[in-house]
Design goal:
Number of domains: 1
Shape: globular
Largest sheet: 5 strands, parallel
Strand order of the largest sheet: 3-2-1-4-7
Order of helices and strands: EHHHEHEHEEEHEH
Number of strands: 7
CATH superfamily: HAD superfamily/HAD-like
Structural class: alpha/beta
CATH architecture: 3-Layer(aba) Sandwich
Helix content: 40-55%
Radius of gyration: 15 Å
Mean pLDDT: 91
Number of helices: 7
Oligomer: single chain
Distance between the termini: 44 Å
Length: 159
C-alpha cells in the first residue's frame, strides 16, 4: 500500500522564482531592501498562479537570513497574492532545507520540489549543491532542477 497521498509543491525563491543573480551582480550583496525589489520570472509566476487556481498546496522554502522573513513574505504577497504566512520557510543552509523536504516525504507526502540548488552566479560560474541534489535524487521526490528551471523561465508563449 502506497502511503504517499497528499501532494505539496515546494518552490525555492532565489534564482528559481526571483532573478536574484542579476540583483546580486549589480549590488554585490543582498539585504532586505534588495530582497523586496527582486524581479519575478514571469513564467514561474504564471505557473504558480495556475497551481493556486487548481487548489494545489504550495510552500516557499529559501535559504536567507531569518531576519529577512517579513520582507520575503511581503514580496511573496505582492507577487503571488494568495500566500499565507505559514507557507514561507526560511532555512539556514541548503542541507537543512533538503532534510526537511525528505522529512515531509517520509511522513507520507508526495513532494514536487522546484529549486535551482545553485550558487555563485554573481561570480560568473554557477556551482551546485551536489550533495543535496544527490540526496533528493535518491528519493521519489519530483525534483525540477536548474536546467529545467532555465527552460521554464526562458519559454515564450506559443501563439
Amino acid at each position: 500500500m502506497n502511503k504517499l497521498k497528499k501532494e505539496i509543491i515546494i518552490y525555492d525563491i532565489d534564482n528559481t522564482l526571483a532573478d536574484t543573480a542579476t540583483m546580486l551582480k549589480s549590488s554585490g550583496k543582498l539585504n532586505n531592501l534588495l530582497f523586496s525589489k527582486l524581479a519575478v520570472f514571469p513564467n514561474m509566476k504564471k505557473r504558480i498562479m495556475d497551481e493556486y487556481a487548481s487548489g494545489d498546496k504550495i510552500l516557499f522554502f529559501t535559504v536567507r537570513p531569518f531576519l529577512s522573513w517579513q520582507t520575503t513574505f511581503k514580496w511573496l504577497e505582492q507577487n503571488f497574492f494568495y500566500t499565507k504566512w505559514y507557507e514561507l520557510f526560511i532555512f539556514s543552509t541548503p542541507a537543512h532545507k533538503v532534510e526537511f523536504i525528505v522529512f515531509l516525504y517520509n511522513k507520507g507526502y508526495r513532494i514536487s520540489f522546484i529549486d535551482d540548488m545553485s550558487y555563485n552566479h554573481e561570480n560568473g560560474e554557477v556551482l551546485f549543491f551536489d550533495k543535496e541534489i544527490s540526496k533528493l535524487r535518491n528519493t521519489a521526490i519530483a525534483y525540477t532542477s536548474y536546467a529545467e528551471i532555465i527552460k521554464i523561465n526562458q519559454e515564450t508563449k506559443k501563439q
